[in-house]
Amino acid sequence: MPERSESVAKHIEALHRGFDLWPTLPFHPPALGDARWTEELILSTWVQAQTGRPPASGLEYRVGRSRGGFDCLEFSFLPEDRWLAEEAPIDTSIPLNRRSDGPQPRIEIPVPWYGAGMSFGSISEQVMLARAKAAQRWRTFTCTGEGGYPESLLPYKEHVITQVATGMFGVREETILWAPIVEFKYAQGAKPGLGGHLLGDKVTAAVARMRESLPWVSLFSPFPFHSVYSVEDHKKHLDWIRAIHPQALLSVKVSTPNDVDMVAVGSYYAGAHILHLDGGYGGTGAAPEIAKKNIAMPIELAIPKVHRFLEHEGIRDELVLMASGGIRTAYDLAKAIALGADGVVLGTAELVALGCTRCGNCERGRGCPFGLTTTDPELSLLVDPEWGAERIGKLYASFEFELREILRRLGLSSVRALRGRTDLLRYRRAEGGPDGTA
Amino acid sequence: MLETRVPEEAPLGSERGYRRYHILTRPAPERFPIPPRFRVRVKKHRLVALVFKELLEYRGNLKVALSRPCVYGVFGGPLGGLTPREHLCVGCLRCCVQYPEVVQIQPNPLRKRLGDSYLRPEYVDTLLYEARTGRVPVRGAGWRGAFGGEGWDSMWTDMSEIVRPTRDGIHGREFISTQVDLGEKPGFLRFDARGEPTGPLPRVVSLPLPFLFDAPPPTAPPPLLEVLSEAARRLGTLAILPLPVCLEWGLQGSWVVPVVSEADWGEMERMRWRPQLVELEGWHPGRYAELRRRLEGSVVAVRVPMHADLSAMVQAGVRVFHLCADYHGTSGGRFAAGLLRETHARLVQAGLREEVSLLGSGGVVMAEHVPKAILCGLDAVALDTALWVALQARFEGECRSRREARVEFPSLEPSWGVQRLLNLANSWRDQLLEVLGAMGLREVRRLRGELGRAMFQEELEHEAFADIEGYAG
Ligand code: SF4
Ligand code: SF4
């Protein structure tokens, strides 16, 4: 990796100071935030990434102002005298292999989340490393995304999921063999029905080498897998991975169409261990605005649909349901589980922990000015992998703390007991203007 | 006659032989300044102090001391941060994260005043981008807006996970047709003993795009009329204009759709061209029959409010309707989506849906509204306010009522205006291809009324949340 200049060091120092300072100021940056990720959610994520705890200053850290979904759900906590004791043991682990067939190992993660696929090229290698280090420390996973597997991740390979997507960029036999979990990305929530899209400016020589393509030429992943026109074809794909790496768990990442419940059942019969549902409102890479907002349903609506259908089919306890696409806070993740998911997959929240302001300029010019979604050699240096791992780890610590608090107040000693407990939720209709403002 | 004429170019699709439909886009930057998105407020004395402090800290190393956080050149002018170049600011906030005591970035309140409560400022931004570039708006970082909402925002379109034999849009592999047919399409044909058709024959106008241009308000300046007409001609679509306006400004051609009202009936004598489509304003059975007789070969549509009951007109043989909502998409106090679904369903129940064409207008202001309106039952959409915003018109107050809306049109340079509308059309068509491609539909005609491929917030929420305390549906 290139060396930092004195200018870069100056900016890193000023940025770190800013991340710490802003949440403590009596006013918020007026241009920060949006209805989903409000300024308070962004600032409170920075606090959590700094301290490992939710803010005590009154900053909102649980919900945004999107006027629907998670932002209209809240937990019906027990009266305080029925909460579990503070020292009571609470299990936040989940299994990732619940199938009763097959030789694959029974992998468990101690927290009900792992990191989403973000490809080399769409984010910098430094950010990938930061995520991998955090995943290793927390004994959970991160995912390569579809841009290949940089060898710098190899020390963390027990905690890295290899993604196989339609473009097959950088997919080789060894990258499959390195991974305890292989994820097939059929679709992604931010651009359902459309392939991945990496603009030429980000395809540096290193990215092109990794993806086995040409530098500075835009890359489009096709959609869909052109060898998959049926559930049988889908099974053929999973069998192909199984033949190469029989021990790997298989995850299938899909978007949220009308028939997402049927897709889930099809994936189960094809042999998937994990169904990763990616709702429409998340996403870290570039996507057409029309796709983000309009195509496919938000994750809050897809989870119960799939959970109930799997129950109805009698296979709910054989398939792990991981949800993503707009999980911003510990409360979102707990609500996703109460709606029927086993766990969640985090993407944007990790980037916000590293300083993302959600400005949406990831694809403009040299890429992210904070060094996150960029391959610019100088900008990438703004994120030191060790600093990044620390920030993501602290965010995880805060999420774990909050999840334990939620479970304690619900009288549950295991996160597994929260799954599908919609009776513990309450719906509160939003008031105010279109973005929730008064 | 209009004095300034747009240089004519051949309309799309007029070439001999097969040519794939393609809209030629060219950059067409705004002609009138738009307020920058952000205001960059620099405390100048603090900036100077900061530079001095850093000069000391970095031992006079100017390169380090003057290295600024903005990578977009806002502080790259001759005087750096003392005269920030606001128009370059993209609101990334890196500068104010690093130096909160020196610089603040604020959303520009002037920008927030663009549009109105329906055509919101962010829609204006999008339309300007589309008209400027002809491209599909792409951004990072996921969806930033509300969960769902009112009107078109309360529905999502479906996608197909694996079984998806078509693809167009950005990859351009397989062809997805955006052609629609408007007209009278009898359910079957009758022939006599010699094999000659005896019954009514189809009268159909085929358009390469499922959108047309609707009539602008009476305050529209003549160059706007010319721009609408010429852009429609080049796109191979239609421009709807009041008959007296067509006559006064010499806007004639098969692509011009005259709207004939009872009051203008006398003007019919002066009509010298054969339109493909003509609209009768309101329902007048006698006038309808006369129009059909006079303009044999033209498709005759009846223009009525979107909430109108069509049954008497259908019974009287009308087969093409232009259903008009106000500019906020409501008619008779209800939003277009629900009204269209009901009208479509009634025609399906009557077994007439395939014979009837529904054109709709009002409230379709974003690219995604086109497929949503078609999903609800329209065959094609007539565009209005979105076109004017693309041409940098400004609303004075709420632009809702078709009669009372006050729209300030800028002085137009016609060829610039035509290019802006071509760009907008291309962007919207490409976005339509994205939506159709995601669904696996090979043609937009199959989208019409295909409610199984639409997802409504109310229904999905009911399914997901019905058993949750406090959810009242
Ligand atoms: S460009 Fe903006 S939205 Fe994208 S990662 Fe960077 S800070 Fe976040
Ligand atoms: S907000 Fe970003 S683009 Fe705007 S001046 Fe600051 S650094 Fe530059």
Task: Explain what this protein looks like in three dimensions.
The complex is a heterodimer of chains A (438) and B (473). With 438 residues, chain A is α/β, with parallel strands linked by helices. Chain A has 13 helices and 15 strands. Chain A has an eight-stranded parallel sheet with strand order 4-14-13-11-10-7-6-5. In chain A, α2 packs across α13, α6 (231-244) crosses α7 (260-270) and α7 crosses α9 (299-312). The relative contact order of chain A is 0.18. In chain B, 49% of the residues are buried. The N and C termini of chain B lie far apart (57 Å). In chain B, the strands form six sheets. Chain B has an eight-stranded parallel sheet with strand order 7-16-15-12-11-10-9-8. In chain B, strands 1-2 form a two-stranded antiparallel sheet. In chain B, a hairpin with a 2-residue loop joins β13 and β14. Chain B is an alpha/beta fold and 473 residues long. In chain B, α5 packs across α13. Chain B is elongated and about 105 Å long. Chain B contains 14 helices and 19 strands. Chain B folds into two domains: 38-107; 155-461, TIM Barrel. At the A-B interface, α1, β12, α8, α9 and β15 of A face α3, β2, β3, α13 and α14 of B. The complex binds iron/sulfur cluster (2 copies). One iron/sulfur cluster sits between chains A (351, 356-362, 368, 370, 372-373) and B (92, 140-141).
Can you give me a brief rundown of this structure?
Chain B: Pfam families: Glu_synthase (PF01645). The complex is a heterodimer of chains A (438) and B (473). By secondary structure, chain A is an alpha/beta fold.
List keywords for this structure.
heterodimer, A: alpha/beta, TIM Barrel, disordered C terminus, B: alpha/beta, two-stranded antiparallel sheet, 14 helices, 29% helix, disordered N terminus, binds iron/sulfur cluster
SSE map:
The complex is a heterodimer of chains A (438) and B (473).
Chain A: H1 6-21, H2 39-51, E1 73-75, E2 94-95, E3 108-109, E4 113-115, H3 125-137, E5 142-143, E6 160-165, H4 173-177, E7 181-185, E8 197-198, H5 205-211, E9 219-220, H6 231-244, E10 249-254, H7 260-270, E11 274-278, E12 287-288, H8 289-294, H9 299-312, E13 320-324, H10 330-339, E14 343-346, H11 348-353, H12 377-380, H13 385-410, E15 425-427
Parallel strand pairs in A: 4-14, 5-6, 6-7, 7-10, 10-11, 11-13, 13-14
Antiparallel strand pairs in A: 1-15, 2-3, 8-9
Helix pairs in contact in A: 2-13, 3-13, 6-7, 7-9, 10-13
Chain B: E1 38-42, H1 44-57, H2 62-65, H3 94-98, E2 103-107, H4 109-112, H5 121-133, E3 138-139, E4 155-157, E5 180-184, E6 203-207, E7 211-213, H6 222-235, E8 239-242, H7 243-249, E9 256-260, E10 277-281, H8 285-294, E11 299-305, H9 311-315, E12 320-324, E13 330-331, E14 334-335, H10 336-349, E15 357-361, H11 369-375, E16 380-383, H12 385-390, E17 394-396, E18 406-408, H13 414-439, E19 454-456, H14 457-465
Parallel strand pairs in B: 7-16, 8-9, 9-10, 10-11, 11-12, 12-15, 15-16
Antiparallel strand pairs in B: 1-2, 4-19, 5-6, 13-14, 17-18
One iron/sulfur cluster (SF4) sits between chains A (351, 356-362, 368, 370, 372-373) and B (92, 140-141).
